[in-house]
Amino acid sequence: MIKNSKPKREGQSTWILWKYLLREHAGPFMFALSVITLIFLLNLVFRELGRFLSRGLGFQVIVEFFFLNIAWMIALAVPMAVLVATVMAFGRLSGDNEIVALKSNGISILQLLFPILVVAGVLAVGLVQFNNAVLPEFNHRLKILASDIARTRPTLSLEPGVFFRDLPHYSLMVKEIEEHPDTSFVKSVFIEDSSDPDRVTTIVADSGKVYFDYGNGQLVFMLHDGEFHELDLLDMQNYRILTFPKQRITIDVPDARLQRSRSAHRGDREKSADMLLADIEENKDEIRKQNQRVEYLFSLHVEKYMPLNYTPAGQASDTTLVPEIEKYKIYNPNIHRALADHLKLAQDLQAKTELINTLERENSKLMVEVHKKYSIPVACIIFVLIGAPLGIMTRRGNMAMAAGISFVFFLIFWASLMGGEKLADKQIVSPCIAMWFADLLVGIGGLILVMHSIRESTFIRWDALGQWLRKRLARS
Predict the structure, then answer these.
(1) Would you say residue 69 has pLDDT above 90?
(2) CA distance 295 to 290
(3) How far apart (Å, rounded) are the C-alpha atoms in residues 416 and 441?
(4) What are the tens digits of pLDDT across the range 331-340?
(5) Where are the domains of the chain?
(6) What's the chain's average pLDDT?
(7) What strands lie across the sheet with 170-179, from one edge to the other?
(8) Of 413, 409, 404, which is closest to residue 469 (Cα–Cα)?
(9) Of the candidates 169, 155, 211, the residue with the CA atom closest to the CA atom of residue 186
(10) H or E segment and range at residue 424
C-alpha cells in the first residue's frame, strides 16, 4: 500500500496541473476566437451590407449570407486563437513567477507544453474534419446565394431632371424629388410606356409619391392631377387624352426579388479532400489519354511519310545498306499534301499539349486545396510551440501584447502560405512544399524558442527592445 501511494499521488498531481493549465488557456482561447471572428465579421458587414440593403434583400437573407461566411472565419480564427491564448496563458504564468515555481518543483517546460500540445492536436483533428465536411458545404451554399444576390436587381434610384431608361419598355423622369426612407415624393412626373408594340402611352402628372414593393417586385407610383396620352401606332389619327385626379401606376421590375437557385457544380473550395483527389485522378486519366493520342498521331504521321521497308516502284532494294538505314528509306510524296499534313499535325499536337498543360495546372491547384485543408489545422500545434516560449519571455499576459506578438507571427505564417499558393498555382514549386513550408518555417522557429526556454537563455531582449522603441518615439 505504501509503495503504490506515491505513483498515485504523482498521477493526481499531474492531472491537477493539466487541468490548471487547460483552464488558463480556455478563457483566452474563447475570448480570442470570439474577437477574431467578430473582426472578420465586421469587416464583411462594412464591405457588403450597403450593397445588400440597396438591393432590397430581406433580413433573413442577409443573416443567412453572413452565417454562411462564419465557416471560413472559424477555419482561420481557430489557429490564431490558439496562438493568442498560448501567449496570454504562459505570459500570465511567467509574470506571476509560476513558471519559476513549477521548475523548482522539477516540472520542465516540455511537461508544461505536453497537455497543451495534446489539446492542440485534438483541435487540429477536429479542424481537419471541419474543413472536409462543413466548410465545403457552407462555401457551396454561399456561392449559390451570392450568385442569386448578384442577379437581383438593385433598388431603382431616380435623379431629378434625368431620364431613367434601365427598365425595359419604360422611360421615367421627375423634375423634383424629396427622398424619405421608404417613400419618395416627386413633382412633374413623366412616364413613357412602350410595352404594347401597337401603341405608346405617355403619363404626365403634377405630383405624387413613389415607392418600391419588394414583395411583388414592382415600382409603384401614386400620382395626382395627371393625364394619359395614348397614340395608336397602327392608326396615327387615333390619339386619346384621359385626365385623372388620382391614379396608381405599377411597373414590374425584372429580377427585383431574390430567385433561389441550385447548382451541382462545385469549385475547388467547395469540395472535400476526397472529392478533390477524385478530380485529380480523373484529370490524370485524361492526361494519359491525351499523351497516348499524341503518340498515336505522331506515329501515324511518321508511318505515313517514313514507312518501314519502303522501296520506290521500279527500283530494287539496296541490300548493301545498313539494316537500320534500310528500314527508314523515305519516299517523295506530293509536296502540298505533305505540308498540309505537317501543319495539321502541328496544330493537333499544340492543342493536345495545351490541354495537358491546363489539366496539370488544374491538378496543381487542386492539390494546393488538399494540402491546405491539413496544413492550416496543423498550425494549431505549431503555434503552441511559438506561443509558449514567447509568453514566457514577455512575462505579461495582457491581451494587447499577446495580440501584437500573435499578429506578427501569424502574418509571417499567412504570407508564406499565400506566397506558396501562388507559386504552386504557377507550377514553380510543388503544392506539398508550398502549403507546408509555412508550418515548417514557423515550426522550426518555435522549436528554437522552446530550446532557449528550456536552457533559460535570453533569445529576445524585450527590455532593450522596449527602450529602443521609446527612444525612437521620443526622437520622432
Answers:
(1) yes
(2) 9
(3) 9
(4) 455 677 777 8
(5) 2-152+374-475, 170-252, 268-370
(6) 81
(7) 170-179, 183-193, 199-213, 218-232, 239-252
(8) 404
(9) 211
(10) helix 399-425
